[in-house]
Amino acid sequence: MITNEKLVINGGKRLKGEVNIHGSKNAAVALVAAALLVEGKVVIENLPEIDDVTTLLDAISNLGGIIEHISHDTVSIDCTDINKSIADNYNLSKMRASYYLVGALLGRKHNAEVVFPGGCNFGIRPVDQHKKGFEALGASFETTGGFIKAKARKLIGNQVYFDKISVGATINVMMAAVLADGMTNIENAAREPHVVDVANFLNMMGADIKGAGTNVIRIRGVEKLIGGKTYTVVPDMIEAGTFMITAAATRGTITVRNIIPEHMESLTVKLKEMGVSIEEGDDYITVKGQKRPKAVLVQTMEYPGFPTDLQPQMVSLLSISEGQGTVMESIYDNRFQYVEQLHQMGSDIRVEGRTALINGVNKLIGAPIRATDLRAAASLIISGLVAEGTTTVYNLEYLDRGYEGFVKKLAEMGADIKRV
Question: Which listed residue, 37, 94, 155, 397, has the most CB atoms within 10 A of its CB?
Answer without folding.
Answer: 37
